[in-house]
């Protein structure tokens, strides 16, 4: 079982990722673009989420697919990033068309993380930078992209250490690919009680986050991380934002199940997770390149994709911290 | 950080647990009795749940508390176990009273697991044993109770090995206690890829499930457990059923958050978890012995209780398998 050639979410064909980073403000935006309307789902499990267009994704609702997913710093101000993405995609003709000559209506779900307490000049008055960062993130979108302290991960913190953007993939064979991208900003710790071994160590492939081997690891009896590694338990200040992707042709309910299973990757890479202070949102998007069987084997394939997604999320989280500077 | 004196969910004062086991049929019922109407919540995350009285627990709904939680084998037939518990508690005067002379109406949420494919005579025609087992489980309720292949865990399987009932507690100090009880029957494996090290090893206290030390553990790259450890991916045949309890005075929404965080214990102890084939239900119940602060520190206490609950769930799952025969 191997990653794809890039070991990035863009190993799922049809995806591009663009970062836009405001170094002066210490914040940014990360946008995942799909090459058509992909099936989308979301699973919100944190106690302090900040989102837009998530109800749009409910299986019982109308809209068939998404054209991009936007992750942003900036807390509530970052919700404007999707405005920029919507505007730029629309003028390029990307989006739903309700009439042949009508405007293209891009469906762009989005989630934000809190990075306002970090370094950088946030004195933007009534002109936060996020709409412009959203516009720029579309132009920046490529199959290759940076990890660590860029885009939505620019100002992220993971417990007491720098957080950032992480991404990985897993090739399930026969053309089936799963990938994840995480903006890592949780209240919990990504490290075991020794302060250096990633919780996600059992899932690492080829030293992708430094080769974390278990060697005399202290046991984790205290549910609160020791020595103040739990630093900022304030409402709305933390979250892990995740996008998982596959080229399997899932329906909306199946994509939701994959998003739900992918939350387990947060549970395995961050402790504690899903707290009242986190957002902890997983989007799942699915292209339609690989058809799944229609018979009883179908749900087993959903299980396999969901389990791979959970592993990819755990790896992406550790990798995001590993690459943060 | 230590368990309570019994290292069982009944270290939370006010709880008793009763098993009723039908050895001939290879199934059973486990009932958790509260000493008054405890606040209750539920979080359903598996793809194949079987429950009753769960919508009753929604924060927006009327009923203020629960008098028992029933876990049962028997799949859909096991939902009758709560009938027996309701009947016996009511004649003893336990339950809501809508009028002074009215019948007591016990609120008894319940969840079932599938054990019908296991050993034992299930040829019960129109008279499944679960109502009678429910009645008996009330009489059997004590603060001390058995672990392993008893009650709702009698016919449980955890991947390729015997599942069972596990329970632990954690003393958070200053009178605050958290405990968990799990009926362990997941499709996923509780063991790492070496087939012997519990996923939950980092959380073990005092060798409570055999002293699982990490020593040359193979890394877990394949999201599907190797060598057929994933044996029964059929709809409705697997689940981990969990009750977590605390004596902290939570409201319904807070109990729900604790149930949500406690699901992470399943994620850390079972891989894969929350699959289309699992039920994966966590009930959280809360007495009112320990008041939490009303100020900003309150949510931090919720975080601590939720994180402890997640750890207790991981430990209870491993312990249930360890004690199964």
TrEMBL record, chains A, B:
<dbReference type="InterPro" id="IPR005321">
    <property type="entry name" value="Peptidase_S58_DmpA"/>
</dbReference>
<dbReference type="InterPro" id="IPR016117">
    <property type="entry name" value="ArgJ-like_dom_sf"/>
</dbReference>
<dbReference type="Pfam" id="PF03576">
    <property type="entry name" value="Peptidase_S58"/>
</dbReference>
<comment type="similarity">
    <text>Belongs to the peptidase S58 family.</text>
</comment>
<dbReference type="GO" id="GO:0004177">
    <property type="term" value="F:aminopeptidase activity"/>
</dbReference>
<protein>
    <submittedName>
        <fullName>P1 family peptidase</fullName>
    </submittedName>
</protein>
């Amino acid at each position: 079982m191997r990653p794809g050639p890039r070991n990035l979410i863009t190993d799922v064909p049809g995806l591009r990722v663009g970062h836009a980073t405001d170094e002066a403000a210490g914040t940014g935006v990360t946008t995942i673009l799909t090459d058509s309307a992909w099936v989308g789902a979301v699973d919100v499990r944190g106690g302090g989420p900040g989102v837009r267009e998530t109800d749009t994704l409910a299986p019982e609702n109308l809209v068939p697919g998404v054209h991009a997913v936007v992750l942003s710093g900036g807390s509530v101000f970052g919700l404007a990033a999707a405005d920029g993405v919507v505007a730029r995609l629309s003028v390029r003709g990307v989006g739903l068309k309700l009439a042949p000559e009508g405007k293209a209506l891009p469906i762009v779900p989005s989630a934000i993380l809190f990075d306002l307490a970090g370094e950088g000049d946030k004195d933007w008055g009534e002109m936060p930078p996020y709409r412009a960062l959203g516009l720029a993130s579309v132009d920046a979108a490529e199959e290759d992209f940076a990890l660590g302290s860029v885009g939505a991960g620019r100002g992220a913190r993971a417990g007491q250490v720098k957080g950032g953007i992480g991404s990985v993939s897993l090739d399930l064979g026969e053309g089936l690919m799963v990938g994840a991208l995480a903006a890592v900003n949780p209240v919990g710790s990504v490290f075991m009680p020794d302060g250096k071994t990633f919780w996600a160590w059992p899932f690492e492939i080829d030293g992708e986050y430094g080769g974390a081997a278990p060697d005399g690891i202290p046991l984790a009896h205290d549910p609160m991380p020791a020595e103040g590694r739990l630093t900022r338990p304030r409402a709305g200040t933390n979250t892990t934002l995740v996008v998982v992707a596959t080229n399997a042709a899932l329906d909306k309910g199946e994509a939701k199940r994959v998003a739900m299973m992918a939350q387990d990757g947060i549970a395995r890479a961050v402790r504690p997770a899903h707290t009242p202070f986190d957002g902890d949102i997983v989007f799942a998007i699915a292209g339609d390149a690989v058809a799944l069987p229609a018979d009883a084997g179908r749900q087993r394939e959903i299980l396999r994709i969901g389990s791979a997604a959970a592993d990819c999320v755990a790896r992406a989280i550790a990798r995001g911290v590993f690459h943060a500077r």
